[in-house]
Amino acid sequence: MASLTNLIILLPLLLLATFSPTPSLCYVGPSVARVHEGATQASAYRTYIVLVKPPPSGTNEEGHRRWYETFLPSSHIGESGEPRLLHSYIEVFSGFAARLTEAELDAVTKKPGFVRAFPDRTLQLMTTHTPEFLGLRNGTGFWSDAGYGKGVVIGLLDTGIYATHPSFDDHGVQSPPTRWRSSCKAVRCNNKLIGANSFTGDDDSYDYVGHGTHTSSTAAGNFVTDASDHGVGTGTASGIAPGAHIAMYKVCTAEGCQESAVLAGLDAAIKDGVDMLSLSLSSLAGVSFNKDPIAIGAFSAISKGIIVVCAAGNKGPTPRSVSNSAPWLLTVAAGSVDRRFDAGVHLGNGKRMDGEAFTPAIKPTSKPYPLFYSEEHRFCQNAYYGSVAGKIIVCQSTTPMARYSDISRLMGHGAAGVVLFNDKATGYTIILQDFDEARVVQVTFADGIALAAYTKSASNDAVATFTYNNTVLGVRPNPVVASFSSRGPSSVAPGVLKPDILAPGLNILAAWPSPPFKIISGTSMATPHVSGVAALIKSLHPEWSPAAIKSAILTTSDTTNNIGGSILNERHDKASAYDRGAGHVNPARAADPGLVYDLGVTDYAGYICWLLGEEGLVTIVRNSSLTCAKLPKVKDVQLNYPTLTVPLASTPFTVTRTVTNVGPADSTYAAKVNSPSSMTLHVSPKTLVFSKAGEKKTFSVTVSCQGVGASEIFVEGSLSWVSKMHVVRSPIVAIHGVGGHASAPSP
């Protein structure tokens, strides 16, 4: 929720251990039916998502259903007694989800009109201060000018919603737009919560997990005073777009999100008339777009003017781990905010380490306690419990569940407290955990190493005390890219920079069923922040396309932190574009970008033709008038994207872009380039002169790189178009493996 002081890959990290890994996507060809690993018996029923050619135009919903039933066995009820046809899709694509055996699926693939099939997969779910951190102030400036997102409908695909939470009160929220067509099946529906429906096999939209309540309130929760989680983070909570409407599509449970249900939610949201979709979930990284039902369904939404915002994933800091990398999606990475739940570790040598603690149980201790650290029991597993009583134990972090159980055992054997330090990969990212009433302080990897060294050097004289200073604001440096946030480049589309944008996703306080507010982390939490920002822009500029709104958000983003330096990553090294995307979202500037890089269905279709050919076009783009024979093939690097990716080579390479003037009618922009010594940039023309709103200008950028070190994987610069009122900035990334021919789609 926002106002406050991520089931692929965006899961709240607290829930990470509860979900099984996403299985690989298995493509079933027209005459070959393969069952994914684990389904070994031919008679076993599985759910498949089946794409077919559409029925004649003008066919109603019931007609679609009858057409789909012609592909099924004569018995519409399986041996288990369950209906074979689970979901009928109309808006996302022409097709259905059905329970079939392997032999039955093989028969379906041979019927005229069959296109392809996917085994259903289980996907994973990936505050009182964040609006203020993003520059939003109640009653003033851009937030007020945008009407807090009034009139905009945000659809969320998630775990449901706790409808009676005060974040979903409708005071000050206008009636829903007359075009709204959905029902609301919740305990309380009003002008705020205007849609709530379940696609998980029942009509219960209640949120038994909490995740959907959290993301909904982050995007568009109303103002709630005195919000806190166990007394920390206290303040007035609100979503980023508190005046917007919420529509919840329950497609996930505690066990995960079935892809067939996600598609059913997408289909319904498009029919209902949402303005944007917020998906804190995604499919596997590395899956071709024409084999990814989420990317296919989202394209249908984009083609109808619906913005689709998705999480980048929680597989960081591993390179090439980013999910949701289709260029028609707005892909969000997670960063920190300038707030710390401060707890100090005071050492006997006079040094103090700034840590964080979730619970106010960490109160000042007048007497120092002996510190205990064992390299043999570094992770506090199978520890020698006879030596822990009355001591503060130093442990390195492991998995969330192991941390909880190990610390519980330590406290049960009389430990005075625990200092839990990060592993090397997590670095400076402290993912706040709730250890009930246990006295636990979490510190960074660097501080943990120093603390372990102190306990060993001081031996029996090593002592420490804890202090708890509650919530501290203005922490520097911030934002910092969170360690768990997935990184680019995309393995599917390396010529398009992903992730797109960085937003708050670390230790975010938002609404929860019980307690009423909860702090969790993940790119799931970052995604609704950007959804809320997009809603604010949509409210001000309802005529803008999804690509224009994305461009506005990217080209106005911040690349510096709150001390004027570059945004850093979890190691406190300079974050790259593959860590943070274009930069950190800046709502006020995004509302007035000056210029935008726009894209429409035909542009994306040309790109799909280049990448995946006619088969890919037919699968993804539901427009029979568009064929690859009639469309110019658009290479990834030449797509009119607001970021630029080029080959890392000494030979000059030229890309072109077109910008549209959405600022003052008469305006002049000058090109300003910023690049390292190894990168040479030439822009032509160097000046863009506009005489009217909506006018378009095309320019080219030629890039060459010399003297690049063997260890350098990519080189990064930027191009900014600067006028008297605006700075329109685009990162330029030169990397190996782009700019050539697309590989043929795999069978």
Please give the structural blueprint.
Layout: E1 46-52, H1 61-69, E2 85-89, E3 95-100, H2 102-109, E4 114-119, E5 122-123, H3 130-133, H4 141-145, E6 153-158, E7 193-198, H5 211-220, E8 224-229, E9 232-237, E10 245-250, E11 252-253, E12 256-258, H6 259-272, E13 276-279, H7 293-303, E14 307-311, E15 330-335, E16 339-347, E17 352-356, E18 369-372, E19 392-396, H8 400-412, E20 417-421, E21 440-443, H9 445-458, E22 463-473, E23 501-504, E24 508-511, E25 517-520, H10 523-540, H11 546-555, H12 577-580, H13 587-590, E26 595-596, H14 601-620, E27 644-647, E28 653-661, E29 667-674, E30 679-684, E31 687-690, E32 696-705, E33 714-722, E34 727-735
Parallel strand pairs: 6-10, 6-13, 7-10, 13-14, 14-15, 15-23, 18-19, 19-20, 20-21, 27-34
Antiparallel strand pairs: 1-3, 1-4, 2-3, 5-12, 8-9, 11-12, 16-17, 16-22, 18-22, 24-25, 26-28, 28-32, 29-31, 29-33, 30-32, 33-34
Helix pairs in contact: 5-10, 6-7
Characteristics:
747 residues; alpha/beta; Alpha-Beta Plaits; Rossmann fold; Glucose Oxidase, domain 1; 5 domains; 7-stranded mixed beta sheet; 19% helix; S8pro/Inhibitor_I9; signal
Word description of this protein:
The protein is α/β, with parallel strands linked by helices and 747 residues long. The chain has five domains: 26-120, Alpha-Beta Plaits (2-Layer Sandwich), CATH 3.30.70.80; 130-337 and 480-593, 3-Layer(aba) Sandwich (Rossmann fold), CATH 3.40.50.200; 339-470, Glucose Oxidase, domain 1; 600-639, no CATH class; 642-747, Immunoglobulin-like (Sandwich). 19% of the residues lie in helices and 26% in strands. The strands form eight sheets. It has a seven-stranded parallel beta sheet, sandwiched between helices. It has a seven-stranded mixed beta sheet with strand order 17-16-22-18-19-20-21, with helices on both faces. The chain has a five-stranded mixed beta sheet with strand order 27-34-33-29-31, with no helix packed on it. A hairpin with a 2-residue loop joins strand 8 (224-229) and strand 9 (232-237). Helix 5 packs parallel to helix 10. The radius of gyration is 26 Å and the shape is globular. 56% of the residues are buried.
